[in-house]
Amino acid sequence: MIENQPKKPSKSDRTRAQILEAARLLFAEHGYDGASIRDVAAHASIDPAMVIRYFRSKDELFARAAVVDLQLPALRVIDRTTIGETLIRRFLEIWEGPASGPGMAILLRSATSNEFAAEKLRDVFGNQVRPVVAAVADPAADADRRAGLVSSQLLGLAMCRYLLRLPPVVALSHDEIIQNVGPTLQRYVVGEDVS
Amino acid sequence: MIENQPKKPSKSDRTRAQILEAARLLFAEHGYDGASIRDVAAHASIDPAMVIRYFRSKDELFARAAVVDLQLPALRVIDRTTIGETLIRRFLEIWEGPASGPGMAILLRSATSNEFAAEKLRDVFGNQVRPVVAAVADPAADADRRAGLVSSQLLGLAMCRYLLRLPPVVALSHDEIIQNVGPTLQRYVVGEDVS
DNA sequence: GTCTATACCGAGATAGAC
DNA sequence: GTCTATCTCGGTATAGAC
Question: Which parts of chain B sit beneath pLDDT 50?
């Protein structure tokens, strides 16, 4: 067999990982246009030509860097009465927790001016957020609209707090966010408004 | 007197206006990086050198294009019991009404990757949104936080509906938006939650 | 006032020596 | 596998002819 994949952190693999990590950092901070191949190379202490050698193009590098897994299926056991709080807590973990990477920041930072990033972001909400909302939405038929409303509040909060860094939103404590935004999400998911 | 300003739509002025209009359109649609001087010139049926001649640089052109006046003082007569609905109705006018230009789209499109645009957007909320919220917030001392929460919902809605074009959010009718988002804003401005 | 031509720069990407 | 050198392209901005 040619299968000698296990246990081979070859130098190539480590270099590749370094490049990818540098790319994720810089794409998250400066966006697709703002982060150049040269920047990524410098940050990984490597030659720019290597970046192209390992990933064929900037687009492909971005595609590799912009993978997002919100791990929402972990919320499988859901309580309809506390879904709002559950969602906002998970949101804070994703954006500020130690485990989750900068995947969402990468997408959101570039989504306004890069159609690929925009499409990926729409995919995230269609494939990851929507199913969770649909599982508990009040008539499930409204799942699309409810998931859309949830997304509008959560993306807006992320924009203001992590990208735009609007001072009063940055200043909010986790408890304040949970207490204020939680009820909003709760109503969007299982509320009886609607027309 | 050298004052012959009135009644002189000289060819220069018209050209200047054409350039500015083209710039506002393209900056709103493609963002700062995505809209080049050449694009703007082509769209205004003019030579690229003229763009630089009229506005000294791309940065200055962007600064001229990115002026925003939400005209919120027009809401001076405010009813605390309907402030949420008032705000969301004004939001829809700003983004979809015939009068308002693409100013907000210009800023929001570029704010994630352009520090100047980000600063201008923070200014808009500090100088235009915050005062309105402060005028009716419930303890007025919480005005900053309340205005921040309002901004998070409104910017998120704008992102999803007009920039990201998330299908379920695009599909929302004006009435659905008013009925669903209005109560959220109402609670953010005069609600009694908080910690 | 307007446009042609171009300078200059930094981007992404490639060829080929080592 | 790695790096030096370079190509090409498109960006902003400028010089100078008309």
Answer: 1-5, 7
Q: Could you tell me the residue ranges of all domains in chain B?
A: 11-65, 72-190
Q: What is the pLDDT of residues A161-194, one digit of tens each?
A: 999 999 999 999 999 999 999 999 999 999 987 6
3-state secondary structure chain B: CCCCCCCCCCHHHHHHHHHHHHHHHHHHHHHHHHCCHHHHHHHCCCCHHHHHHHCCCHHHHHHHHCCCCCCHHHHCCCCCCCHHHHHHHHHHHHHHCCCCCCHHHHHHHHHCCCHHHHHHHHHHHHHHHHHHHHHHCCCHHHHHHHHHHHHHHHHHHHHHHHHCCCHHHHCCCHHHHHHHHHHHHHHHHHCCCCC
B190 touches A: beta carbon within 8 Å: no
Query: In this structure, is the CB of residue A191 within 7 Å of any atom belonging to strand D?
Result: no
CATH ID of B11-65, from 1.10.10.60, 3.55.50.30, 2.60.40.10, 1.10.10.10: 1.10.10.60
| Chain A residues in contact with B133 (beta carbon < 8 A) | none
As assigned by CATH, the class of the B72-190 domain is mainly alpha
Distance B45 CA to D18 C1' (A): 20
List bases, strand D, within 7 Å of protein CB.
1-5, 10-16
What Å value separates CA A166 and C1' D10?
34
Write the pLDDT tens digit of every residue in B99-120. Answer: 999 999 999 999 999 999 999 9
What backbone torsions phi and psi does residue B164 show, to the nearest 5 degrees?
Answer: -75, -25
Size of interface A-B (CB pairs under 8 A): 167
Residue A128 forms contact with B (CB below 8 Å): no
Among A34, A148, A153, the residue with its CB nearest the CB of B166 is A148
Common-topology check for domains B11-65 and B72-190: no
Q: Which residues contact A95 (CB under 8 A, 6 or more apart)?
A: A104, A105, A158, A161, A162
Q: Could you tell me the distance in Å between the CA of residue B16 and the C1' of nucleotide D7?
A: 38
